[in-house]
Amino acid sequence: MQLTATMQDFILHWGEMGTKWGVNRSVAQIHALLHLSPKPMAADEICEALNLARSNVSNGLKELQAWKLVSISRDLGDRRDKFHSIRDMFDLAHVVIEGRRNREFAPTIAALEKVAAKAQDDATPPQVKARMAETLETMQMFDKWYMDVARLPRGVQMAALRLGGRIARFLPKSN
C-alpha cells in the first residue's frame, strides 16, 4: 500500500497519541495503518509500509489482537494471515473503552474495596477513611453509569451522544 503524505501524518500522529495512552508507538502506528487500509494487510505489507522490522510488527499484531482491536482473515490459496482493524468507529471506541475499564478501572475499584475494608479494622484516621470511602463511591458510581449506558441499544447511545450537554435542560436546576 502506497502511503500519501496525509496518511503518513495520520499514522505518525496516531503513534504519538499511542505513547500518551500508554501504547508503544509502533503498535499504535500498525493500528493506524490497518484502520486506514481499505483491505486486510499481511504482516510483510505492514513491515514495508511502515518500515518496521518483522519482529516488531509480529509483536505489535499480537498485542493488538489481545486487545481485540485487530482480527485475522485469510484468502483462499494464500497462506499468509491478513490483518484488519475494527472498521466501525463506534465499535472501535467501545472495544477501547471496555478494554481500559477491564484492565485499569475495575482492578482499581477492587483494590480500593480491599483497602477500604481493611481501613475499618485498623488505626486509619477517620478523615482518611472518609476520603477513601468517597473515592471508592465516586469510582463505583462512574462504573455503574458506564455499565448502564453500555447495556443500552446502540441507537439510544448514539442519541445520547448527539444530545451531549443539551441533556442538562432535562435535569433539575442546581443552585
From TrEMBL:
One of its GO terms (molecular function) is DNA-binding transcription factor activity. The keyword Transcription regulation applies. Transmembrane segments: none annotated. Gene3D superfamilies: Winged helix-like DNA-binding domain superfamily/Winged helix DNA-binding domain. The keyword Transcription applies. Residues 22-80 form the HTH marR-type domain. Keywords: DNA-binding, Transcription, Transcription regulation. Pfam families: MarR_2. InterPro entries: ArsR-like_HTH, HTH-GbsR_regulator, HTH_MarR-typ, MJ1563, WH-like_DNA-bd_sf, WH_DNA-bd_sf. Belongs to the GbsR family. This is HTH-type transcriptional regulator.
